[in-house]
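Person: Show me a sequence?

Helper:
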Amino acid sequence: MNAPIALVTGASRGLGKNTALKLAARGSDLILTYRSGADEAQQVVKEIEALGRRAVALQLDVARSAGFAAFADEVKAALARVWQRDSFDHLVNNAGIGIHVPFMETSEEQFDTLMNTHLKGTFFLTQKLLPLLADGGRIVNISTGLARFTLPGHAAYAAMKGGIEVLSRYMAKELGARGIAVNVVAPGAIETDFGGGVVRDNAQMNAGIASQTALGRVGLPDDIGGAIASLLEPGNRWITGQRIEVSGGMFL
């Protein structure tokens, strides 16, 4: 039986990298995307290969929807070249950026950057890749705990992620006829370089967030990558249209 193939966007670092490695450890092959970190992406490919799995890294800017058709052609070519297949099994829409700015100071340019990256990018990239996604496949879209609770400075970012959560339910409904399950994973605050690494590097903020979680600490990349990989296991095929928050119980 062929190993499942997962496509993870933004997998050269952070949560995407962790997710890719967790999936590889559980027996998946990978197609990774990166925006500018080609060397980092190739290092992730090597780590996946060291786990006995196959992987390729392709360049993609999820904020540029004009490039999605060409990217889909690259995916199709990679599937034929590396796997002798015409489809992949799992899509993880992970790539993203954070802009921390108060609502009153958010510029239209910042808003558009977040919109294009998170909401428009996820919508139209998934649309372009659907012909290559196998029937019975899975999609995981990434949201944020900030779509449930509010912290000043995240209005535009959280609004895009709120859109992702609604979009995911519609995708689950409309793609169900093909047996494709669509779910949302919503991380809480995680120690990565996201947003300039503020949760990881600011001890006061780290401690403050930890005090607000039921489990008493800030999240780690392993917490998220493991949750996404678990959601893509065969035993979870009956879960669809759900928002799964992975925040250690923030602000319960």
